[in-house]
Design goal:
The chain is an alpha/beta fold. The chain has one domain (2-218): P-loop containing nucleotide triphosphate hydrolases (Rossmann fold, 3-Layer(aba) Sandwich), CATH 3.40.50.300. The chain has helices at 44-51, 74-84, 100-110, 115-128, 144-156, 174-189, 201-204; strands at residues 2-13, 16-28, 33-37, 59-64, 67-68, 85-89, 162-166, 193-197, 209-214, 217-218. It has a 6-stranded mixed beta sheet with strand order 6-7-8-3-9-10, sandwiched between helices. Strands 2-1-4-5 form a 4-stranded antiparallel beta sheet, covered by helices on one side. Helix 6 (174-189) links the parallel strand 7 (162-166) and strand 8. Helix 3 crosses helix 4, helix 3 runs parallel beside helix 5 and helix 5 runs parallel beside helix 6 (174-189).
Length: 220
């Protein structure tokens, strides 16, 4: 599904290059639940953003279902990201002035899905995540766990092939965190490929495979 070949990311300032990732080579099979671990500054989030096509490598090759991601234009990247990838962030990234219902509807509007179909999909998500009673509330009226549930629901409403989760339980208490991880586990069991970044050994245990980054390199 995903093949990274010698992915390197650096930032230049004058004649100085600061490397964030060095020669990352990685294969991810469809249906996998992969965890990326490592200390702060190891390059975890940068790698996740490159996988999510929100950032581009300085060099190297990225193949997504045999598409050469590293050769695509910005517009092609945007289309591929929109059609194939859902993102879950530590800080939820919900739109503050939209209700829960409207936040869930937004990705469907981007995909130009018709009104009746949009309504059906949003209602299915509200029911599946047990947040029907919250549909008219704004993010500020929800607990952290409820906001993250909405964020996960929004990430999967378009049925992406890949979910990327960046510290998805970082702002949650242990009970809320466990609920979110159980949701991700269920999605994976139903066939969605998941790649998560986490500091938590407990969260890592939900995955089937762990890679460790240190100073921008895979160490095992």
């Amino acid at each position: 599904m995903i093949k990274l070949k010698d992915i390197t990311k650096f930032y230049s300032s004058g004649f100085v290059k600061t490397f964030v990732l060095r020669n990352i080579t990685l294969d991810v099979e469809e249906g996998e639940f992969l965890t990326i671990m490592g200390p702060s500054g190891a390059g975890k989030s940068t790698l996740l953003y490159i996988l999510g096509m929100l950032d581009m490598p300085s060099s190297g090759e990225y193949y997504f279902f045999d598409q050469k991601v590293h050769t695509l234009t910005e517009k092609q990247l945007s289309e591929l990201h929109k059609d194939s990838i859902g993102f879950v962030f530590q800080s939820y990234h919900l739109i503050d002035d939209l209700t829960v219902y409207e936040n869930l509807e937004t990705p469907l509007l981007y995909k130009k899905i018709k009104g009746s179909e949009r309504k059906g999909k949003v209602c299915d998500m509200l029911d599946r995540f047990q947040i029907v009673a919250k549909k008219d509330l704004f993010p500020s009226q929800l607990s952290g766990g409820q906001q993250q549930k909405v964020a996960v629901a929004r990430a999967i409403i378009t049925h992406p092939k890949l979910i990327l989760a960046d510290e998805p339980t970082g702002n949650l208490n242990s009970k809320e965190g466990q609920e979110v991880m159980e949701l991700l586990k269920e999605l994976n069991q139903n066939g969605t490929t998941i790649i998560q970044v986490t500091h938590s050994e407990k969260n890592a245990a939900y995955g089937r495979k762990v890679i460790n980054l240190l100073d921008g390199q895979i160490i095992d």
